[in-house]
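INPUT
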Amino acid sequence: VSALSNALFAPTSIAIIGASADTNKHSSLVQRHLRQHGYTGAIYPVNARRSEVLGEPAFPSLRAIGKPVDHVFVNVPTDAVMGAIEDCAEVRASCVTVLSNGFAESGPDGAVLQNRVLDVARAGGVRLLGPNSIGLVNTAAHLALSSNEALSAPTLLSGRYGLVSQSGSMLGALLSRGHARGIGFSKLVSVGNEADLGVGEIGEMLINDPDTDAILLFLETVRDPAALAAMARRAYDAGKPVVAFRLGRSELGAKLASSHTGALAGSGAALDALLRACGIVCVHQLETLLEIPPLLIGRRPPPGGRAAVMTTTGGGGGLVVDCFSEQGIEIVGPNPALIETLAARDVKISSSTLIDLTLAGTNPQTYGVVLEALLASPHCDLVAAVVGSSAQFRPDRAVQPILDASQRWPERPLVVYLTPQAEQSLALLAQHGIAAFRTAEGCADAVRAFHDWQAPVAPSGERAPDAVAALLAPGGPGRAAAGARLVFAALGIPQTQATQLPPLADPPADALAGIRYPVAVKVLSPDIAHKTEAGGVVLGVADAHELRAACALILQRVGDRRPDARIEGLVVETMERGLAEVLVGYRLDPCAGPTVVVGVGGVLAEIYRDVTVRTAPVSMAVALEMIAEIRGLAAIRGFRDLPRGDVDALAQAIQAMSRLAFVPAVAEAEINPVLVRAAGEGVIALDGVIVCTP
Amino acid sequence: VSALSNALFAPTSIAIIGASADTNKHSSLVQRHLRQHGYTGAIYPVNARRSEVLGEPAFPSLRAIGKPVDHVFVNVPTDAVMGAIEDCAEVRASCVTVLSNGFAESGPDGAVLQNRVLDVARAGGVRLLGPNSIGLVNTAAHLALSSNEALSAPTLLSGRYGLVSQSGSMLGALLSRGHARGIGFSKLVSVGNEADLGVGEIGEMLINDPDTDAILLFLETVRDPAALAAMARRAYDAGKPVVAFRLGRSELGAKLASSHTGALAGSGAALDALLRACGIVCVHQLETLLEIPPLLIGRRPPPGGRAAVMTTTGGGGGLVVDCFSEQGIEIVGPNPALIETLAARDVKISSSTLIDLTLAGTNPQTYGVVLEALLASPHCDLVAAVVGSSAQFRPDRAVQPILDASQRWPERPLVVYLTPQAEQSLALLAQHGIAAFRTAEGCADAVRAFHDWQAPVAPSGERAPDAVAALLAPGGPGRAAAGARLVFAALGIPQTQATQLPPLADPPADALAGIRYPVAVKVLSPDIAHKTEAGGVVLGVADAHELRAACALILQRVGDRRPDARIEGLVVETMERGLAEVLVGYRLDPCAGPTVVVGVGGVLAEIYRDVTVRTAPVSMAVALEMIAEIRGLAAIRGFRDLPRGDVDALAQAIQAMSRLAFVPAVAEAEINPVLVRAAGEGVIALDGVIVCTP
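OUTPUT
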């Protein structure tokens, strides 16, 4: 355990700048929470107008304390923060938590101020949590250094989950919701604006923390993707699952999260891709964040996804079946071997997909026999056990058979949903490390997240072809109007046959030799972004005679509409046919970094939001996985009697595109569409564009 | 209040057949619950082996009681139920609740037995609740006539919601979950298999019940759609909202619900359409069923859907924004007038879509001022108020401004989401009739359901053209192989030009006069359902010469492949082009009755599940609404610069198809596709089929 970690989570002394003696004031809460939960170290309230604050001797300044201070808590108006940090530096405090707001989250001026504060802290060797942090909690050390009202609870439940939250108030929400059902935390940290200490570094401390088994993240943005990814990979290797709930899943939400946090707005899909790629489990419901850890601790991403569901209540079982199905989770009924095994133990079940024991199954003996048989059976990969009314007033009767069975099969994934209000049973299950859920919706979210969990993607050893970087060097030919074709060629992506003609209404005959018809003719100009609007495109040109007419028409129309534009020539492209049109794109996301995007081509991608994103570069396996996720490509994957498309060639094109990740100059690239031909006949890129970073 | 309602919900005497004195047994619970919750009427345990059961004198038989019995509760093995009902009839009991199972829910034999039991009850004038009913509760009368373990709670919370549940155990789950947060019920009824008393009739009693303000339904199926619809319409007129949570939303769930209840499996979408059409509010999360009533009571379906969101916690507010957006709810930021109004009251808010007051807004004064201004503002149709940590330990402070504001604007829709664990605040809000939510997901579900709420569809005065019924009479020409064309013509749906030719390889020239090319040629045979597989289709025929070749080819191929088939002729159809292909279908659903289906044509409907369903017939307004719901038709509704399609003509075709509801002979009909041409140019049906009931 590092000295910093000690000063943060187990300080021997704490100074509070901005301590209030008025218990009606929010600013009195930090000091009250500290003593209330049994902090035994020294507390030094700093208050120039009082000699005592809430029973502790007060000091006019940090300097006046005259003893070493491990951790300083700052709760003063924005414009007084700089002075407080200067004082921290002067007395060589190890770390400071700044609750005050008005920094990066409030706009550009605040961001400037935040950077100045950070410079002072760094120069003085003071590590900073916040600003805009509501503080932190370490239950093992009885440290509740936070003004969050959730800490006004009489007791602080300890537990083995560490929470890192970018939202201060949601830290309190999760603390209180966990408390009510027996789920406690080892440490809770509000990282605020992450000027210095961020999710990555706090996460590293939790990996090293012997009190922490799982790391929970409440995220509004990702400010340092590299640090987050490195932490998540280390946590994965250390066997400590990292679970994230991310705000901003909707477009509007993402916009708000970005303005609320003062961070850059990345694409939500890109952020999710980043989290998944580094082995983080992503949940979509808030409560699932608290409920899922026992399903992950001690486990690795599961090889299969078949769930068996058992219940004593048809209604509750049906609810789980509906919620699982909506999340795309496969539910398997009992196989003959299982039915036989149970029959030998005098339990008769039908072959129905839902194993409904009815009221007779509330007998703990029966319930236990069936649950054990399911856990033992290789026909499923996970068991969901539903418990009815008995869970409310007879937790022992309802929960004991589950505890027994899970103890005998600890390695087998198990989730439990209790239909009634049943905090005692939930607490009992939590205490024994069994994933238990208050709602069927949350249970399904957890099982989905568990199945989506993957090992961190191994860093790629490959690189982009040297030619690509050369083409895209400043002033390189790849940056010209026709340059995208050169880059895609260098990446090895097949393209339509194209011939460049001089900008003449009557091109010479030898220039037309070898052209394969029908063709499309397009104007080539560095000044024209939207060729169709400029009259610069003619499609379906059938022969050389028509081609000459098309050249003349384009030059005339463009000359009329855009007399200013420099015309470099005309491009003649063979028109191709395929089984499907696919969008393949690359984007350097401002938060998540290099990403590759695959979707159905044309307007359908937008209408059905049928796209998928991964961090780039991708392997062939991941490229194939992406193709499998696009619903609109069902046709080329083998749907009914429709002919299969060349999925492998498409995956190669995706992989090739993803190698732009090695060329920092590229901001965005897109081919829309890539035409997919029949299996074995390859793909062909029709129209592509590359945008370089300014 | 009817005599039956009295006997059910406020009996002066209750006999229990199958009463157990063993408190370890489930069968002892009914009698214990009755006395525990203060039932003051007579209880007559019927038990031939004891003179006393749990402190009450026992009787060897119903007959032996010698006094009138209002309500009999039967909890005996399946094969003893018939005897018990015979006894009920003999002593002229008003009603009987049968807990015993093994009837329709267990399979065809059980269904036969259930019908026999019902016959005996009917003959004896005994009304029957169940079988497979867990009983009922009437809090006002202190009547807890149920073996559900949720009733083992020390107290029974009264309230103003009546619950009718097809699942016995989920009745207990809802009771206990409501109880924990101060939501009580007037009456709870488990209708079991609904052999006699069903959801419709019990619902009617709740409409007449002065203690009930809202009717909540937990449904696994719909056994009597007419009774349910009539009840829901009456409830709507009486101003008592009906809310339904329906199991079986997934395909697998629907299959299970059907086998679990012994009822016919209808399509889930058709059932939802039925519920909506009769004014029922459909929620998708279990807890929303408990939480939504205050949003509906005293209200009518809202005219607009713009939601304003205010919060003191950015994290909690962001969560609501994400959940609302995912449900397609429009969120509106404050308008200048509102910002000005608030500035005049010394509250400064930004124009950000989410009104985030931050910690400063936890001041009740500020919170109240903003909430009132939002409720007063016409720029939004609903206000969502998010409350942070203060809701946990200072309910008065957090909740009071909400109570005050809502009292001043009682008619304005308001929902509240509390981020921390805060039962006291939830109870306080419930007590004052304010819709408060434990999760942001549930809050969004409720707002979505509220916006989807519609007044019951008025019964249609129209009918199908007489010609349609005549065509489809037994043996009528509409039932022949080529009959679908005749029926669609009679309905007034435009179709491709079609010419029927004799089954000759070389048709006479005059038969080909007037054909508009290109055409498709198809074989006409009552024996061939899949024409393409039989070699009976040639597309893209350009002229009379090609047409002769196509006729010869078809006759040869069909003769080879299906030598047994009777060939009535060949149909020549002009091939048409359009902007979009649409599926328009009709289906007599086994549960929901006549329905009309609209979706994107081709395989996309299936891949993207892009279809919508309504009960038939539909008005033009509803047909247009259906078109608006199909995402894949965005193109023809005016997307980007794409040409608009003839949406009105498509709606007319949908309406025409829906009139098949007046022709009971039709089981199913489908046109796939209807081609939609440019606005003003109409639609045209390409390929249709009609299936009559056997």
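end of record. The mean pLDDT of chain B is 93.
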